[in-house]
Amino acid sequence: MSALRIGVLALQGDTREHLAALGEAGAEAVPVRRRGELEAVDALVIPGGESTTMSHLLLDLDLLEPLRVLLADGLPAYGACAGMILLASEILDAGAGDRQALPLRAIDMTVRRNAFGRQIDSFEGDVTFAGLADPVRAVFIRAPWVERAGDEVQVLARAAGHIVAVRQGRVLATAFHPEMTGDRRIHRLFVDIVKGRV
After folding, report:
1. Cβ of 176: how many Cβ atoms within 10 Å?
2. Which one of 22, 110, 120, 131 has the fewest CB atoms closer than 10 angstroms to its CB?
3. Which of 81, 124, 162, 187 is catalytic?
4. Distance (Å, whole) CA 136 – CA 164
5. 20 with 182: CB under 8 angstroms?
6. pLDDT given for residue 114 in this prediction
7. Whole-number Å distance between alpha carbons of 12 and 46
8. How far apart are CA 77 and CA 74, in angstroms?
9. Interstrand relation of 43-46 and 77-80 (parallel, antiparallel or unpaired)
10. Which residue of the set 18, 56, 177, 187 is catalytic?
11. Is 147 an annotated catalytic residue?
12. Does the active-site annotation cover 56?
């Protein structure tokens, strides 16, 4: 049986770190920049970066609507930081005009961009994560938080009283960057979700 093929959206952001983390978690990880590459993967990771820039690169490369369709059809996905923002059904402080983050509508949630503050307000902390025995070291960089989670959304973690990790079906999202630590448990969880183990 061939290895699970998980794409990492490689338009902008920390693609290389996710590719490495997925490889360590037992998946074949490949960068995705084109529609044909998107249609050839079993699942997709949307990395951190700048959500408005990523939105408009998706538009420019004719990937936005195809990705929305694939997600609606059940493509498993994991979004970290900017990826969480894009996976939301509603984005607060999304920007305006051609500098606007565009929701992919894969998780029934409302997310606030840069909710924890600007780059200077970035921080790390230990976060209790549902289903994991030990806390996760979470790196928050201009991080969002979830202001509303729909009835079918499972809340997996909170920080400073705010929701920072969620799951809806086969779609996972974190406000923080697990790829920036040596802890691969969240990437392994995503691999298990894609394989239907959890």
Report:
1. 29
2. 120
3. 81
4. 12
5. no
6. 86
7. 10
8. 9
9. parallel
10. 177
11. no
12. no
Share of residues in the chain with pLDDT > 70 (%): 97
- Give pTM, 2 decimals: 0.95
**Residue whose tokens read 């691969």:** 184
Name residues of the chain where pLDDT drops below 70.
1-2, 120-121
Given the residues 17, 18, 50, 179, the one annotated as active site? 179
**For residues 123 and 13, what is the distance between their CA atoms, to the nearest angstrom?**
18
What is the model's pLDDT at position 1?
42
3-state SS class at 53: helix
The token duo for 41 is 């993967």
Residue type, 127: V
**Where are the extended beta strands (E) located within 128-184?**
136-140, 145-149, 154-159, 162-168, 171-174
Question: To 5 degrees, how large is the angle CA 146–CA 148–CA 153?
Answer: 90
Q: Output DSSP code: residue 81.
A: T
Q: Which residues partner with 96 through β-bridges?
A: 99
Cα distance between residue 171 and residue 148, in whole Å: 16
* Rounded Cα gap, residues 137 and 46, in angstroms: 20
Establish whether 179 is a catalytic residue: yes
